[in-house]
Design a protein that fits this description.
Elements (H helix, E strand, L loop, with lengths): L3 H11 L4 E4 L3 E4 L2 H39 L3 H6 L3
Helix pairs in contact: 1-2
Length: 82
């Protein structure tokens, strides 16, 4: 699992600068503090997604192991939930 510091480093490499605005009004580059805050926010979001994916994967592995111990398939287990 990636640490927050590692995720921030990845994001900074991917997005060395950040600008806000649009084509009509123009763009301005974020200040250093705004940039750091936005990168930290993005890191938190990506880490949360990683954690959720790991949780889903762990649940699937646990379910598969249980079904294997019971000697039934997933389709057979659904029949038990009548």
């Amino acid at each position: 699992m990636t640490t927050k510091k590692q995720m921030i480093e990845l994001l900074k490499a991917e997005f060395p600068t950040l600008r806000v605005g649009d084509n009509d009004a123009g763009y301005i580059e974020l200040s250093a503090d705004e940039y750091e805050a936005k990168i930290a926010e993005w890191a938190d979001v990506r880490l949360a997604k990683e954690a959720k994916a790991a949780e889903v994967q762990a649940q699937a592995a646990t379910k598969a192991a249980l079904l294997d111990r019971l000697g039934i398939t997933e389709d057979e287990s659904k029949l038990l939930l009548f």
